Amino acid sequence: MQDLDSFLHGLLAESGDTPDRLLQHLIAVQKQYSHIPYDAIQVLSERLGIPPVQIYSVIEYYAFLHRNPRGKYDIRFSDNITDRMLGNRLLMQGMCKKLAVEPGIPRDDGKVTIEMTSCTGLCDQGPALLVNGIAVSKLTEMRIHKMVGLIEAGVPVGKWPGKFFIVEDNIQRRDMLLNKRLIKGSALESLLVKGADAILNDLDESGLRGRGGAGFKAGTKWRLCRDAAADEHYVVCNADEGEPGTFKDRVLLNSYADSVFEGMTLCGGIVGARKGFLYLRGEYLYLLKTLENTLQERRDANLLGNNILGQEGFDFDIEIHLGAGAYVCGEESALIESLEGKRGIPRKRPPFPVTSGYMQKPTVVNNVETLLAAARIAVYGGDWFRSAGTPESTGTKLFSISGDCERPGVYEYPFGVTIRQVLEDCGALDTQAVQLSGAAGFTIPPQEFYRQIAFEDVPSGGSLMVFNRQRDLLKMVLNFTRFFCHESCGFCTPCRIGGRLMNDLVEKVMVGYATSYDIHELKKIGRVLQKSAHCGLGTTAPNAVLDTLQKFPGTYSRRLVNKSYEPAFNLDKALEVSRQLTGRDDEEAHLRLGN
Ligand SMILES: Cc1cc2nc3c(=O)[nH]c(=O)nc-3n(C[C@H](O)[C@H](O)[C@H](O)COP(=O)(O)O)c2cc1C
Ligand code: SF4
After folding, report:
1. What CATH number did the domain enclosing 440 receive?
2. How far is the CA of 574 from the centre of ligand 1 (A)?
3. Residues near ligand 1 with C-beta < 6 Å?
4. Which one of the ligands is nearest to 397 CA?
5. Ligand 2 centroid vs 553 CA: distance in angstroms?
6. With bands split at pLDDT 50, 70 and 90, how would you rate the model's confidence at 264?
7. How many domains does the chain have?
8. Which end of the chain is less packed: N or C, by CB atoms within 10 Å?
9. 541 lines ligand 2 (CB under 6 A)
10. SS3 for 236?
11. pLDDT-based confidence at residue 585 (cuts at 50, 70, 90)
């Protein structure tokens, strides 16, 4: 292996030594040495001008960075609820046993580490894992058995059978976006012919709203950014896709990346940006090479770089930044912090990124799907897009469908489709509940399956997980509360403490020690989070608990030890030993419940 000094020397010479490079450099060091050695921290500190303690805090923050060596084969099983439903726990236990390794602890010979990680965005072809950052889907006992053999034989991951690493697009339904291919450069030609104002008008007419969840009008966002006076503007494509159960951006990046980059360049041309970033979640590392190739093809075709399509002054290029296992970095201001090389702590808003984003400059942050749709609207017009969907939710939306259904995958529907229709199409039978919009979303019972997916009714960022009647919904809730505890950045008290308290209470319900008082507490803490958490992670974290409490009360009540407001803890019984020791057992020494 290359010695650390020359590796860092090459890295800094090639990729720069400004402080914003920190996270990308740490990711590169982690990949090369399976951890961040002490000496690397000292060198980076000196060269980037960042105190070592700040570098430590960045390493601690990201789940994929480590100060202690990981195994040569670093394995992370995806732990979304859908992976659990497909048996990930048993597979991981089996692998740990076969390789004689404790979860989370490197084997003595340093060969292997195995642990769980949050959803890897492969719910339609789970259970899944990452090995040295690369996805392996459709795990079976046989596949695990083969992997164990390869690991023990020391076969490099690059020489493992190619079929292990196949990730299918799994597109089950196409509509106006996926059916219409975009000729490379046609949206940019449209911009040059029609002008920026006309394209902004097309976007306004189309009614396109952000596909990342919040649904802000894309045309308005671009215009606000363009009108914010500054010497630099930036465009960011949010490909963090960390919401459990969501994987539609994975498919767009795999098969429609050129359109996404076209959308970013179009945006750059309109707002006056010269630089764009694609923030790619670390779990999608396997897409990086293809994406880099697509960027190069676009540079070769004069669709990126200087004087794009011969237009003097139309300069724009795109750089890919990797995330390192932090869900909250999907929140746009946390993402910008991360792009600047720091911990992904969400900023105070306002100011919003459109006026003060990357490096405090006006920045458009858009979801992958939003940018893809914008490029098509520039070519086919606002009316074309508006012809589908509902008045407040125009066009189509991509959904990631997983869980108890026969045909999981990506489905494109016009907004306004009913949940019932989606369930019928994906072959979901005997459905008890649908979790819409991921862990942060809504739990929908069968009596609400008539509802429409649209901003006017049930909005959705695009994830739909199906649970049949055999499923215990509390397991889903517990999976989500654990997820939010793990992913909380810890900045604000309601989320850091409240999230943990909620998780503990759900665990208490699960093991059968809870009382009605605990349910009351769950609701109270949930409301505190909704009202006072600093960012969207905290305000949405209690959703599944509160929804299931309201719509599936039996899930909780049948497990309660006491349905009146009495403590679950039997103090009188706990004091028995003390009474014996002190020899006191008179009536006054006893506590009577219910008196
Ligand atoms: C905790 C959290 C995670 C988020 N994750 C994502 C994500 O992975 N992808 C995304 O596009 N938006 C995500 N968002 C929403 C972004 O903050 C932002 O609204 C979005 O990227 C804007 O793009 P759009 O207008 O095209 O939807 C997240 C928000 C929160 C609060
Ligand atoms: S709500 Fe949670 S994730 Fe958001 S800032 Fe507070 S602690 Fe961090």
Report:
1. 3.10.20.600
2. 49
3. 210-214, 216, 238, 240-243, 328, 330-332, 365-367, 370, 535-537
4. 1
5. 28
6. very high
7. 5
8. C
9. no
10. strand
11. confident
Q: Place 587 in a pLDDT band, splitting at 50, 70 and 90.
A: confident
Q: What is the average pLDDT value for the chain, to the nearest integer?
A: 96
By alpha-carbon position, which residue is closest to atom 4 of ligand 2?
Answer: 535
Digit-coded pLDDT (tens) for 33-48? 999 999 999 999 999 9
C-alpha 257/C-alpha 401 separation (Å) is 21
Q: Do residues 428 and 526 share a domain?
A: no
Two tokens, residue 473: 């919904």
Q: Tell me the HSE value of 247 on the side-chain side, using a 13 A CA sphere.
A: 28
- What is the average per-residue pLDDT within 342-367? 97
Sheet holding 396-403, edge to edge: 171-173, 409-414, 396-403, 463-468, 431-436, 442-444
Listed residues 168, 196, 215: the one ending a domain: 168
Q: How far is CA 64 from CA 17, 115, 361, 542, in A?
A: 22, 11, 29, 26
Range of the domain at 109: 73-168
For residues 293 and 259, give the distance between their C-alpha atoms in angstroms, rounded to a whole number.
14
Instruction: Kindly state whether residue 277 falls inside one of the protein's structural domains.
Output: yes
In a domain, 326, yes or no: yes
Instruction: Kindly report the CATH number assigned to the domain that includes residue 518.
Output: 1.20.1440.230
For residue 237, the CA-to-ligand 2 centroid distance in Å is 22
Domain assignment present for residue 280? The answer is yes
Q: Is the pLDDT of residue 570 over 80?
A: no
Distance from residue 126's CA to the centre of ligand 2 (Å): 29
Q: Are residues 207 and 333 in the same domain?
A: yes
455 lines ligand 2 (CB under 6 A): no
Residue from 62, 349, 492 whose mutation best tests the ligand 2 pocket (most atoms within 8 A of CB):
492
305, 449: one domain: no
Sheet holding 363-367, edge to edge: 317-322, 275-280, 234-239, 363-367
pLDDT in tens, 74-120: 999 999 999 999 999 999 999 999 999 999 999 999 999 999 999 99
| Helix, strand, or coil (residue 309) | helix
Q: Is residue 551 part of a domain?
A: yes
Nearest CA to ligand 1 atom 29: 331
pLDDT, mean of residues 137-147: 97
Cα 284 to ligand 1 centroid, rounded to whole Å: 17
Going from the Cα of 349 to the center of ligand 1, the distance in angstroms, rounded, reads 14
Ligand 1 atom nearest 240 alpha carbon: 8
Q: Are 408 and 531 in the same domain?
A: no
Q: What is the Cα–Cα distance from 477 to 483, expressed in whole angstroms?
A: 10
pLDDT at residue number 595 = 40
